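Lab notebook, page 48
Experiment: co-folding of the full assembly
Goal: obtain a model of how the components sit together before planning crosslinking
Operator: M.T.
Materials (sequences as entered):
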Amino acid sequence: MTKLKSIEELKKIREEARKDLLSRVQTGTRIIIGMGTCGIAAGARDSMQAVLRELEAKKIDAHVETVGCVGMCAKEPLIDIEQAGKSRVRYGNITSEKVPRLIEEHLVRGLVVQEWAVSRMEAQKT
Amino acid sequence: MTELSLHILDLVQNAVEAGASRVEILIEENRLADIFLIQVRDNGKGMSEDQIAKVMDPFFTTRKTRHVGLGLPLLLDACRRCQGDLRIHSRPGEGTTIQAFLQHSHIDRAPLGDMPSVLVTLLYAENPVDWLYLHKVDGREFELDTAEIRKELAEVPITHPKLRKWILDYLRIGEKDLALMDIPLQAAAIERANGLAKETGGRQ
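Observation: model returned without errors.
Model output:
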């Protein structure tokens, strides 16, 4: 197996990332993207890349993860947004071009985008 | 699926669902033999002979959320459309290897597409996996292994925005270099074709 060519560069990035970790504030935000066959075929990969770009551009710290099919294939790409103490909102048909508005309205302004929301799950009590 | 890379994303998602902690993705393009091979090997829970027999049936799935399983039938269709085939090697407890063979030059073969985005997407799986990616084009190769990266990172998460960008750039440069190295080969192929056209006076 070949060794990573730019291992020194990776170490430098790691140190930058480590400093950055100390300054980050945990927002308790999770973004969950459906990545089953149905989601992939509907464009979930591009939606996910758009989510990552928007989070970076707006300096929002959120935990992003992909999950398999949840059985709502006709509504793919599906993106759930969950914030501490708030209902988890599931948005449907979120193609990549819809992502900037979704992130801006839900995460920056704190408003649910009603026209794209397909379901809402109450916050889990701990 | 408009790109072969999306089939690969789907295969690795299946591996994640099967509890794999490591996935090896091999793409081998051999234009002399006219073969485009995609191989995904995982160390997940594997399948029984009975499951392997059923897995190409679009109305079979182990999921409870829906009653169809289209991923492998779609890939099989993509292979057969290009004079190719799909092979599955698996045993319970020993992981699964999927091999998709396609005719490289076939007009219906979808492009490989955006593999760097697929590989970065895989870093965010619900149950994280390490992937080894190896792309060979006519004997030249590009490789990246997230296990090697994680070893260097210690407590820093591989999904940190700075690292994600580094990995994405690294993959894009690696893939671009493989494609750029193709140019002399393409030029040689055009030269050969022109020579042949002159010899035959442009007639076939």
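Interpretation: Chain A has a mean pLDDT of 88.
Next step: discuss with group before ordering constructs.
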